[in-house]
């Protein structure tokens, strides 16, 4: 009997856990229900000849600024940029106004996001000294990605920088905790190393040791608390070497910008547009990150999409804010690294799909397999193009990669069987829903 599907992706090179092969993929009810050939009829058929069909790419670190900072970005605009770049799901950070640090505020974001965001989504709960004991309940809210700790680079109640408070946070709950690891005390002591008007002094102030001290501290505290952690945006090879000795308790992330930009070029060329926390460091640092990435140490890639307006970025350093957009350029930047031989396509999939699934315990995402959500990032790995301002969708309307010539681009973004983007054109409506996690599925 001929099967009928809602959607069939035909003639593409499909990347399953077993490898890459020419195949068709059948979708019904938002799920993958068949992988093979001559599958039958479908309400919609997409010809993927000459294209690679990857598991939907997940960006597990974005700042979409809503509520309170919508002049920079909001959940709709940030997710629009995400799907235009090939991202099917994002985890959004809690440093909004107000902070996302309570049951009410988490649920407010989930309500704002439902079918308004273009991609699927989850929200981190911000740890504070005041909510530490409540985190074990807050992390169990369906749609939460877990708890986020800012050891540095934050202000107000989201800054948790002393060992006693950190230990209280780590003792409350069981899910993996995401960490911004920069040592606040060392950075405060080094503020006089900032040079007015010179953003190249940013990595001098926020030096390697600021990152390493925090990474060692939090791993030690996590081990005492018997709590798994995830160290975000690692920028130094020394940290990756140290984390490699503690993989039983610590996973970690690197970003496309730290793998692509180098201080020697970035600060003279981009000025404050290259300013972020932790900083863009030297070419030697960048090359060292690649060495450890190809040794398998980083578990995921996240963009740390953190937009600010042109007017804000135009302020003289250090009055200029740290952060850059990146959710839309994550996939094409890494495909370009694939094209240039620095990265295999298999490792790219591991860092953007199966890695996030493994680290965070996602339900039904991260691979092309029967029963999984029909999330696909369809890419043309040979397409040569230039990042132009007309392509950028973030409300901030700039990118440090504007004008860059790349090889490889997302042609289509499919979320639970919905074609939300094809050839730079969006669907008629957003379909984003909350991501499901093993830890909250039966909460």
UniProtKB/TrEMBL annotation:
EC class of the enzyme, as a word: hydrolase
Cofactor: Zn(2+)
Domain of life: Bacteria
GO MF entries: dihydroorotase activity
Domain annotation Amidohydrolase-related: ranges: 53-420
EC number: 3.5.2.3
Any Pfam family the entry gives: Amidohydro_1
Name under which the protein is recorded: Dihydroorotase
The organism of origin for this protein: Sphingobium tyrosinilyticum
